[in-house]
Design brief:
Order of helices and strands: HHHEHEHHHHHHHHHHEHHEEHH
Low-confidence stretches: 1-5, 68-88, 199-203, 383-393
Number of helices: 18
Number of strands: 5
Largest sheet: 3 strands, antiparallel
Radius of gyration: 28 Å
Strand order of the largest sheet: 4-3-5
Structural class: mainly alpha
Number of domains: 2
Mean pLDDT: 75
Strand content: 5-15%
Length: 393
């Protein structure tokens, strides 16, 4: 009945189409009458190549799990993923399909308008699109029955490739907004950036990158065009310096281990971003930057919690003042305050803590907080270690 009632079609003409079809046309089919009806329904799809791509996702997504949390174990990326992964299903909504396939808003709805007889398509973009009758899925997947309307499920590799491409398309748009705000010296609303880190599974697909064993030409190009600084800012402001460091190093390790020379530009950019960058704020106060500097140096370069303790800096991020990330050689607007964060600047600090040890570090911490000089008497030579701290300018 749904097939007869589809909008903008004459029910009488559709009924005559059904009457005219003959089961003998599909002698190999175990269900010739049903298959002929499915053929007749699919003939109404004028843009079949695009409809096929949508159906391919609908058939694939419910059967695929994606990781939302991945922790490296024993420096083995894949082992870490397999041993410490929480799994979540990907919702197959019109919104999700639009993002993955790079369609314009409203296109999925227009493509599926003729298929309401065989698809359950919710009126809202967030509702899950699914095939209510298993017989239609079986028909599409069986090439003997579906003939020219055969649809294959994506392989895991191809599906992950599509997800990462979708993420990179989205962040490309966000990156333009990010640098646009910088040029206009206006504040950036990072609530929208939580799309990358705190939203549904689709927005965490950058964590799928270490699962990729091969890359499509389209994904290779997208990775090499990727701008890491806006995403670094989003992860730092939404999550923490520690998670930024872990995500970056995991992807760098994957990029080196996969051995694909075509993405060397991407790996180099990720490494460069981690080793040397600039943080800045449009607010004329250095306190938030100082806290950000301490958290970033501790997480990325020094990797000792004693550094934050000595400086008296809390690890929790201040969500009210946004920290922007820039390439090391790029300066923000002249009215902003910025700090250079580099691996070279952190080396003397790391050497100092190595030489002090835990007890002496506590004495130094007490001196700084109480404005005393006990450490000079306990270890005069050690506190004279040159510490070339990054400076504000």
């Amino acid at each position: 009945m749904k097939y007869l009632e589809i909008d903008e079609e004459d029910p009488k003409e559709r009924l005559e189409d059904i009457i005219r079809i003959k089961a003998e046309d599909l002698p190999e089919s175990p269900y010739p009458d049903l298959d002929l009806l499915y053929h007749q329904i699919l003939k109404t799809c004028l843009r079949w190549d695009e409809v096929r791509r949508v159906l391919q996702l609908i058939l694939t997504i419910p059967n695929v799990y994606i990781p939302t949390i991945m922790v490296s174990v024993d420096n083995e990326v894949k082992a870490g993923i397999m041993k410490a992964t929480r799994i979540t299903r990907m919702p197959c909504s019109r919104e999700c399909i639009t993002a993955i396939l790079g369609f314009k808003p409203g296109k999925v709805q227009s493509l599926l308008i003729k298929l309401h007889a065989v698809l359950d398509v919710p009126v809202d973009d967030e509702g899950v699109v699914h095939i209510p009758h298993a017989s239609f899925s079986e028909f599409l997947l069986d090439s003997r029955r579906s003939k020219g309307y055969h649809v294959e499920q994506h392989t895991d590799s191809d599906y992950r490739d599509l997800l990462v491409q979708a993420f990179l398309r989205t962040i490309s748009v966000r990156s333009k907004e990010y640098w646009g705000h910088v040029s206009n010296s206006g504040p950036l609303d990072f609530d929208s950036w939580k799309f990358f880190t705190k939203g549904p599974p689709l927005v965490r697909v950058f964590r799928i990158v270490p699962l990729l064993e091969s890359l499509s030409p389209e994904l290779t190009t997208s990775l090499n065009q990727f701008d890491p600084y806006p995403l670094a800012a989003a992860v730092f402001n939404s999550l923490s310096a520690r998670e930024l460091n872990e995500e970056w190093r995991r992807i760098i390790q994957w990029g080196k281990s996969i051995g694909i020379q075509a993405i060397q530009k991407f790996v180099d950019k990720m490494e460069s971003c981690l080793l040397s960058f600039r943080i800045a704020s449009p607010h004329r106060t250095s306190l938030r930057l100082w806290e950000a500097l301490a958290n970033l140096e501790e997480a990325i370069h020094i990797q000792r919690s004693s550094w934050r303790a000595v400086l008296g800096v809390k690890s929790k991020q201040d969500s009210h003042n946004i920290i922007y990330f820039f390439p090391a050689d790029r300066h923000p607007p002249s009215s902003w305050v910025s700090i250079a964060v580099t691996h070279e600047n952190a080396k003397p600090i790391a050497r100092l803590f190595d030489s002090l040890g835990r007890c002496n570090t506590e004495i130094l911490k007490s001196d700084i907080h109480k404005d005393t000089s006990e450490s000079v008497y306990y270890f005069p030579n050690k506190v004279k270690v040159a510490i070339d701290l990054p400076f504000l300018y």
